[in-house]
Specification:
Helix content is about 50%, strand content about 15%. The strands form two sheets. It has a four-stranded mixed beta sheet with strand order 3-4-1-5. Strands 2-6-8-7 form a four-stranded mixed beta sheet. Strand 7 and strand 8 form a beta hairpin. With about 250 residues, it is an alpha/beta fold.
Length: about 250
């Protein structure tokens, strides 16, 4: 399992952060998988998957980049810059576009766990990745962003309330059950991969919810680390009419 060594000050200063770029990358992962985990995702995929697949069919280099970048056990780091507080989608995707081409190729060898295919030995990989993320944002995320944002904000409110009831350990254990948990001894398990532990005491630690059932970790060494997790209540419509008090009493 992969875990981070943190001290009490780091955990005490940790916070939740919303990221339009993380939400868009999670949507890209869902499109790539093409498999829904609940009816809401199925409806969304039915609406957007045919056009997405047609776009990649017309651009085989980007299609190969997506397959390589998402990998099997690890995502190419340049695709997931660590979120920043209040960052817009445009500012986030600009960091993807500004990635060093050589580092992007190196990141892909990690996600592939092998040599880089000849078709990806090129300098425009960050530009291609940014353009694809812009496409997903414009077509499949931005039209629904306000609803998604309200759902993510509701998740953050629920998690912070959970801190008061069960402490940070309960919150961490619930982010990605079976994958994230508080191990004790200042150790935060972040995934199930057998990677060496990372000492992040003193760094900025962010918890970032997304509405697709997805998650990953990212970092900008040595100062910022993020754990992205699937929010609760992804199908909630915060703008819907409130349930009658009698129904609320019955269902909780």
């Amino acid at each position: 399992m992969g875990w981070w060594q943190i001290n009490a000050d780091t955990l005490a200063a940790s916070r939740f952060c919303l990221s339009p770029l993380a939400e868009t990358f999670a949507a890209l992962k869902l499109l790539h998988a093409g498999v829904a985990t609940h009816p809401g995702e199925r409806v969304w995929l039915d609406a957007h998957l045919p056009d997405y697949r047609a776009r990649l069919a017309a651009d085989p280099v980007t299609a190969r980049l997506v397959r390589a970048g998402l990998g099997k056990d690890w995502i190419a780091d340049f695709l997931t810059p660590t979120p920043r507080d209040g960052e817009s989608f445009a500012d986030g995707v600009a960091r993807v576009r500004a990635a060093d081409p050589g580092q992007a190729r190196a990141d892909l060898t990690v996600s592939l766990a092998g040599p880089l295919p000849a078709v990806l030995d090129r300098d425009d990989l960050p530009e291609r990745a940014a353009a694809l993320l812009e496409y997903v944002w414009a077509r499949a995320v931005r039209p629904d962003w306000e609803r998604r944002r309200r759902v993510l904000e509701a998740d953050v409110v629920a998690r912070t309330a959970q801190v008061s009831r069960g402490g940070w350990a309960a919150v961490v254990d619930s982010l990605r059950p079976g994958r994230t948990r508080w191990l004790g001894g200042n150790r935060l398990q972040v995934n199930l991969h057998e990677y060496p532990p990372r000492e992040i005491s003193g760094a900025e630690l962010l918890f970032v919810p997304v509405t697709p059932k997805s998650g990953w970790v990212s970092w900008e060494e040595p100062g910022r680390y993020a754990l992205v997790y699937p929010c609760a209540g992804a199908l909630t419509d915060p703008a819907a009419r409130a349930a009658p008090a009698s129904l609320g009493a019955l269902l909780g």
